[in-house]
Amino acid sequence: MNIFCPLNKYNQLPVIFELKMMRYSRTCNIFRVWRRFSSISAESVPVTESITNDIFRTNESNPVNHRVEHNSRFYSISEPVKKQLFAGGGLPKEYQSLSETLNGLCIMVRKPAIELIHYLNKTNFDAPVLRYVLYGKTGVGKSLSLAHIVHYGSSAGFVLVHVPWVPKWFQYVKVATPSSVHANKYDQPIEAVEWLKHFSTQNGHLLDKLELKTSNTYTWSKREVTAEGSPLSELIDLGLNRAKYATGCIVALLDELKKAASSKQCRVLVVIDGFNSFFSRKSNVIREDKSMVLPSDFLLTDALLSLTRNDWNNGAVVVSVDPSAHPPELRESPLPRYLLGKTGFEHLDPFVPIEVQNYNDKEFRSQIDYYIERNWLQQPKARTDNGRAELSFTSGKHPYSLMRLVAPY
User: Fold this and answer.
1) Cα four-point dihedral sign 338, 340, 345, 350
2) For the packed helices 246-262 and 299-307, what is the interaxial angle rounded to 10 degrees?
3) Model-level pTM?
């Protein structure tokens, strides 16, 4: 069989030139770094010490025990825990794909998560809930810090109320219908069912152990009623089986969790990524009269904003604000006051701000060592001081930029 593809007399271009140039800028950037690596004489560059796991890894897999001494080290999350906590979201898609490629989920223990864990371990749960806000530029690792906190909450015995990415509810809405529970509000039945499944997967075993009951009777229709004293699992099952009532079930479920926490039946940890999207001025849902349905018009927004007020105790609220949770024209600053706006800022005030920054030198070295150990970064010059300096300069020690820079092309 002839495997060649010769040119014909009509000046037909070779096949290689028909490739699309969709990644031109990224390829050039990577080639520039490769060329600089190649120009470095291995004989004139001191090679760093051999990489050993104890430099950039920790054997402490329980995040409850993470302290300052674990800073900049990776810890592993087992596959069953990963499926329980993040099957419904919570990890950036590219990082999740990378973890599958590298045959295991590892998260770096970083200063923001250590600070949060310290605060949560020292919390007076008899006082009104404290609110913590992670902020920083897009791609610095806020979502992974929240994933670390989600793992902490599960290990510490909290009931998790985790929203992996709020903008998904408003920018990629599959179906929006007038609410069957509240006039002038809108339901998101498909998103509500997906979230109930996520909540059940994360907390199902704990809810069975706590045996939480409803404190009110909820009437959904003439035939369907959730009686007072029913297990909370009945609310979840109703929402999963009847999408029409899924949003209303979430409202009831979150209200019951607030009451249960305040009466010391359980502790609740609320973790929300992209919280500023609740106060965005845009969504992709349009009414028949061509007017826009704002995020504030959705019933899920009301339910989560109620849970993030500090009118209850025996819990904590950890949220992130991110420029990418807003439309492109509203991404001028990563600071909470700008992203939350007046309404959102006043809703959370007072809160504890925690900034997530680019890698420091130690974190950068650990990340490179991890990539080398997993054979994701195979360029020999990456083991040299000059080679790492090139990667540091080119990526600016920005976590997402570094991940994309060292990826094969």
Assistant:
1) negative
2) 10
3) 0.86
| Pairwise CA distance, residues 215 & 306, whole Å | 18
* Pairwise CA distance, residues 160 & 297, whole Å: 25
Amino acid at 38: S
Which contiguous run of DSSP H or E holds residue 353? strand 352-355
Q: What is residue 89's three-state secondary structure?
A: coil
Q: How does pLDDT run across 163-218, given as a tens digit for each residue?
A: 999 999 998 888 888 887 787 899 999 999 999 999 999 999 999 999 999 999 99
CA distances from 106 to 35, 86, 109, 330 (A): 31, 13, 10, 33
Nearest to 87, CA basis, from 253, 188, 202, 192: 202
Dist CA 219 CA 157 (whole Å): 31
Alpha carbon of residue 217 to chain centroid: 34
pLDDT in tens, 79-118: 999 999 999 999 999 999 999 999 999 999 999 999 999 9
Instruction: Please report the beta strands in 128-251, taking only residues with DSSP state E, as ranges in sequence order.
Output: 130-135, 159-163, 177-178, 186-187, 218-219, 225-226
Q: Is the peptide bond before 14 cis (omega within 30 degrees of 0)?
A: no
Q: How many CA atoms lie within 13 A of 315 on its CB side?
A: 29
Residue the block writes with tokens 């050993």: 52
The two structure tokens encoding residue 340? 């939350």
> Can you name the residues that pair with 316 across neighbouring β-strands?
130, 269
Rg of the chain over all Cα atoms, to the nearest angstrom: 25
Distances (CA, A) of 77 to 63, 69, 80: 10, 19, 8
Instruction: Report helix, strand or coil for 73.
Output: coil
Place of tokens 């979201």: 89
Report how far residue 67's alpha carbon sits from residue 37's, in angstroms, rounded to the nearest whole number: 36
- H or E element that contains 270: strand 268-272
Parallel, antiparallel, or unpaired: how do β-strands 225-226 and 74-77 relate? unpaired
β-pair type (315-320, 268-272): parallel
Task: Output the six-digit token pair for 275.
Answer: 């919280």
| Antiparallel, parallel or unpaired: β 177-178 and 186-187 | antiparallel
| Burial class of 270 by CB neighbour count within 10 A (0 to 12, 13 to 18, 19+) | buried
Strand locations in 40-116 (E): 74-77, 105-108
